[in-house]
Amino acid sequence: MIMRIFQVTTKQGKASEFGEFFHNVAIPLMQGTDGIVQVLPGAPRKDSPNEFSFVMIWKDLASLKAFVGDDYQSPHIDPAEAELVESRTIKHYDLVE
C-alpha cells in the first residue's frame, strides 16, 4: 500500500475559505474515491493556522495513478481552490504494516 501525504498552506486570510472547501468538498471526494483504503484529514492548529493536510492510504500505485494520472508525484489542486493556496507539498511512502 502507498501512503500519500498532501499538505497545503493557505494564503494569509484565506484559511477559513479554504476550510469550507476542505470540509465540504475535498474530504468527501477523497473518502469516496476508488482505491483509497483510508483518509486522515488534518485541520489547522493554533501553531500552524494556515496548514491543512491529508494522509491517504492507497491500495496500490495503480489505484493512485488511476485517480491523479501518471504524474502522481506532483501535488494536484482543484482550480477552485488555487487562489486560496500559498504552497502545497506531496510525499509518498510504502506503508509499513
TrEMBL record:
InterPro entries xrefs: ABM_dom, Dimeric_a/b-barrel
Top-level taxon of the source organism: Bacteria
Pfam families linked to this entry: ABM
Residues covered by the ABM domain: 1-71
Protein name: ABM domain-containing protein
Lineage per the UniProt record: Bacteria, Pseudomonadati, Pseudomonadota, Alphaproteobacteria, Rhodobacterales
